[in-house]
Structures are given as structure tokens and as C-alpha cells.
Specification:
Elements lengths: L1 H12 L2 H13 L2 H20 L6 H28 L17
Amino acid sequence: MNKRKEALHAVTINRPSHNCQQRFQQIRSNKVFELFVVAIIIFSALIIGIKTYPIPDSLSHLTTVLDWGITVFFLVEIVIRFLAEEQKKTFSNPAGMCLIR
């Protein structure tokens, strides 16, 4: 029975989905990725600050385009973090409580 579990474990490790999850875990834990996320957060705050002042229409259009780009970036970021997570049922709950049954 022990050899059977080892064989099943070996098959599980070599699945392509497991390799993808490992790759997403590497991206999620990469310091450059983390610093880039922080930079985007700061940039987003600056864009919001710019929008509080009267600005020309061309700059207003640019800030709208940048807002959409930032939103898409954060969508990609959350997908990476979700796909990297092993415990997907507790992903959205910082207390670790299971929300999905």
C-alpha cells in the first residue's frame, strides 16, 4: 500500500497542472514581482492624485487609459496569486476559514 501511495504521489507531482502551479508560486514569491506590484500601487495613487486637479482633456484621457491598464495588471496579479495558492478554498479569507463547502 505504501508503494501505491508513492506511485500516486509521483504521478501527481509530474502533472502539468502541478508544474504550472509551481511556476505561479515562483512568480508570486519573486522579489522583483513584489516590488513591481508596490511600484504599480504607488503609481496608481499618483494617478488618482492627478485626477483631483483640473487637467486638460488629453491628460484626462491618458489617466483613464492608465487606470484601465492598472486594473488589468491587478487582475493578472490576483489570478497569479490564486493559481499559485494550494489552499484555494481559503484564498480569500485571511483567517484561513473554509468559505466553500
